[in-house]
Design brief:
The chain has 264 residues and is α/β, with parallel strands linked by helices. Helices cover 48% and strands 17% of the residues. The chain has a single domain (15-248), classed as NAD(P)-binding Rossmann-like Domain (Rossmann fold). The structure holds 1,4-dihydronicotinamide adenine dinucleotide. Residues 14-195 form the Ketoreductase domain.
């Protein structure tokens, strides 16, 4: 079916790889690129949801879409993925490092293992993606774009998301460093910083040292304060495509991402 939507055919012929594509913002982003005519590689550690995203991407308008089951924190698995994608589908034109996990809890109640888990996925997953696919883009010499999903938590301090916020602050900085390094080669790098978005991440986030229900209520209340009920992942996906088209560096999405002072 023909590409539709605001960016119809804007990404025709391009290869777009999205991690964490099985759910939420990643799935919406895969769909938006599919609608814009891109060939899509949907990567998720959950095989079924990645397969579903690929299947739906084809229905929406992607000329081709594949699912790859990979844990982004697994260096060897990511190396294999990069080799396979280059060999079978081609060099990625747009990479969206979106896979991430949540963790709520006070700093002092967060165990070393919890810190490691969050940094492994949210930070190392992005590092692996940037290194491996960024290298392929640079070697090909035809430009490209990398979008990393950071968060408003990257620059808004929080009493209840210390590990998560720290991982996202690192993603924001690495994105800006890589952007500076690759600018001369026509490769753009963007960091997307959404505020509260309605996805599974809050329901699947682990809670440590805090009452989960109370924490969820608190986050909802904070979101309500900013008038953010029901901010859909599709709007974040739109911001991702816009960031690529306009080559934007840092993109706050939602009101508290633009104006807030405390995440939670
Ligand atoms: P989600 O939980 O709906 O989707 C995350 C997807 O990533 C899931 O399909 C999950 O299976 C996958 N995933 C998790 N760990 C993985 C791993 N190690 N390897 C491969 N896949 C993995 O969450 P959502 O909200 O769509 O999150 C996407 C990104 O957006 C995350 O990086 C998150 O931190 C970020 N974000 C989300 C916000 C929100 O309020 N929902 C706000 C700001 C940023």
């Amino acid at each position: 079916s023909a590409a539709t939507g605001p960016y119809a055919d804007r990404f025709g012929g391009q290869l777009v790889l999205v991690t964490g594509a099985g759910s939420g913002i990643g799935r919406a982003t895969a769909f938006a690129f599919a609608e814009a005519g891109a060939r899509v590689v949907a990567v998720d550690r959950d095989a079924e949801s990645a397969a579903r995203t690929a299947e739906l991407s084809r229905l929406i308008g992607a000329p081709q879409a594949w699912a790859e089951t990979v844990d982004v924190s697994d260096e060897q698995a990511m190396e294999k993925l990069a080799e396979k994608v280059a060999a079978e589908y081609g060099v990625v034109d747009v990479l969206v490092n979106n896979a991430g996990i949540g963790l709520s809890g006070s700093f002092l109640d967060t165990t070393a293992e919890d810190w490691r888990n969050v940094l492994d996925v949210n930070l190392w997953g992005v590092i692996h993606g940037c290194r491996l696919f960024g290298k392929q883009m640079a070697e090909r010499g035809q430009g490209g774009h990398i979008v990393n999903t950071a968060s408003a938590a990257a620059y808004l301090p929080s009493r209840t998301l210390p590990a998560y916020s720290t991982s996202k602050a690192a993603v924001l900085m690495l994105s800006e460093c890589l952007r500076a390094e690759l600018a001369g080669q026509g490769i753009g790098v963007s960091a997307i910083c959404p505020g509260f978005i309605n996805t599974n991440i809050t329901s699947t986030a682990r809670f440590t040292g805090v009452d989960a229900d109370e924490e969820k209520r608190r986050q909802k209340k904070s979101a309500r304060l900013y008038g953010l009920r029901n901010y859909p992942p599709e709007k974040v996906a739109e911001a991702v495509l816009r960031a690529v088209v306009r080559n934007q560096a840092v993109v706050p999405v939602t009101a508290e991402a633009r104006g807030g002072r405390l995440m939670s």
